[in-house]
Amino acid sequence: MTITFIGHGYVGLVTASVFADFGNCVWVVGHTPKKIERLKKGDPIIYEPGLQELLNKNLKAGRIKFTLDYKKAVPSSDIVFIAVGTPPKADGEADLSAVLKVAEEIGRHLRKGFTVVSCKSTVPVGTNKQVESIIQKVKPSFAKFAVASCPEFLREGTGIYDTLNADRVVIGSFSKEAVNLLLELHKPINGKRIITDLVTAELIKYTSNAMLATKISFANLISFYCEKTGADVETVLDAVGLDKRIGRIFMDSGVGYGGSCLPKDVKALINIGSKLSIDTALLNSVELVNAQSRMNLLSKILKNVKTKKITIWGLSFKPNTDDIREAPSLYLIRELLNNGYTLNVYDSAALENIKKVFGGKLKYFTNPYAAVKDSSALVILTEWNEFKQIDLLKVKKLMKNPMIFDGRNIYSLVFMKKTGFIYFSTGRITV
Ligand code: UGA
User: Fold this and answer.
1) Is 261 a catalytic residue?
2) Which residues line ligand 1 (CB under 6 A)?
């Protein structure tokens, strides 16, 4: 099959590379000449484990091609995926300008014969219908098409694995022909098939991300109870998670959720709800608890660290990515700077992105040990593997004051008691 992806972010580029690897001919259309040149040379631009290798393999085989020109890609394609960003506006509503602009471009370039146009971007209920009517207006009279919603569920950091091992493939469309083509394309991918209508498919994606955010905020709320009562949040969640109806996965308390998806999609679902006169109190609380989780860690630091030099390990919104969008680190760095602290920061992937935001306001380190030298406290915000068994005795010797604030509960209390650090974590007693 020949397919096109409009957009080369985490969703577009990962999925495009995987489908190319299955033997399809894949076009990726972008709109920034510099980025397209880098992609053509095999530089994925984003950091995603395994992506560079997969991209280069398929570039060499001639199965994936990059262009700025819709004319080269769209007319030869059986399926065109829209995978551009839908960032939140100030009121939480998803900004659809990129999706709608792209829809118009696709429509103008449709070929003679049948094409499926499918949204991979997370879009509010009703957007695919809008895409359909835009294309209908601008398409050449000889072109036939159908829209389909085919939401993506991959996570950053495990994007390739998630694409290959999907729990489900959701296809929403009124066209049998479109459904059949999409089923054919997804054949090598595992996971249950859910064939449904457009709006149901659109709502599945928001429901999924909102449910994940709710699980996290619920765990964080319980961690506040634990901190006030002396209960241990890990034991509580482990025990509760053994109930198969609840499950333990994706229920880790800490500094809250970040990234380009969960915060944006909860906001968008609230926005959609208010337009539909639905009471969104539950979702509002999910957001509120997420903000409180960050503030909770901040207030522990402000209360306990009087000398002003602090080190932060982990800046990306989660491990195995360089993405800092809505990362808890952004909030904590800003607040700590406002409170007069001097900050050393370390992250193995996200340093450059943080530099773009904070410039000369921080000291940047490419080694975790060098970063803690003479610090009064170490704050851990991302659970990168490299921190899990790092030499904490060496860290302690380098620091001015042996104090750790762990926003991800990486270490066990028993172990930390032995190391001699003052150890603050989430939903557990301080040792
Ligand atoms: C999320 C969803 O998990 C994907 O299924 C979805 O496809 C994607 O959004 C999207 O809409 O494109 P992602 O944003 O990559 O994926 O990251 P997650 O793994 O969901 O993590 C989000 C945030 O939640 C991170 O900041 C993470 O640290 C935090 N988190 C996660 C917790 O605080 N506790 C947990 O138990 C799990």
Assistant:
1) yes
2) 122, 152-156, 209, 212, 216, 250-252, 254, 256-259, 261-262, 317-318
**Helix/strand/coil (H/E/C) assignment for every residue in 354-375:** HHHHHHHHCEEECCHHHHHCCC
- Helices then strands (H, E): number in the chain? 17, 14
How far is ligand 1, taken at its centre, from the CA of residue 325, in Å?
A: 12
- Determine the distance separating the centroid of ligand 1 and the alpha carbon of 317, expressed in angstroms: 9
Average pLDDT on 311-323 reads: 95
Q: Calculate how far, in angstroms, residue 147's C-alpha sits from the geometric centre of ligand 1.
A: 28
In the chain, the N- to C-terminal Cα span, in Å, equals 59
Q: Which atom of ligand 1 is nearest to the CA of 213?
A: 24
- 274-290: per-residue pLDDT in tens? 999 999 999 999 999 99
DSSP state of 317: S
Q: What is the pTM of this model?
A: 0.94
Residue 122 pLDDT class (50, 70, 90 cuts): confident
E strand map for 191-346: 192-196, 309-313, 342-346
Give the tens place of pLDDT for each residue, 187-235. Answer: 999 899 999 999 999 999 999 999 999 999 999 999 999 999 999 999 9
Tell me which of 93 and 201 has the higher pLDDT. Answer: 201
Q: Where are the alpha helices (DSSP H) in 247-327?
A: 262-275, 281-304
Q: Locate tokens 């539950």: which residue?
A: 282
3-state helix, strand, coil in the chain (%, to 5): 45, 15, 40
User: In this structure, what token pair is assigned to residue 85?
Assistant: 């960003």
Residue of 318, 320, 382, 426 with the most ligand 1 atoms within 8 Å of its CB, for mutation: 318
Q: Which residues of 164-173 are buried (b: 16+ CB within 10 A; e: fewer)?
A: eebeebbbbb
Instruction: Give the per-residue pLDDT at 92.
Output: 78
Q: DSSP characters for 10-55?
A: HHHHHHHHHHHHTT-EEEEE-S-HHHHHHHHTT--SS--TTHHHHH
Tell me which residue has tokens 């066209």: 175
Distance between CA atoms of residues 306 and 251, nearest Å: 33
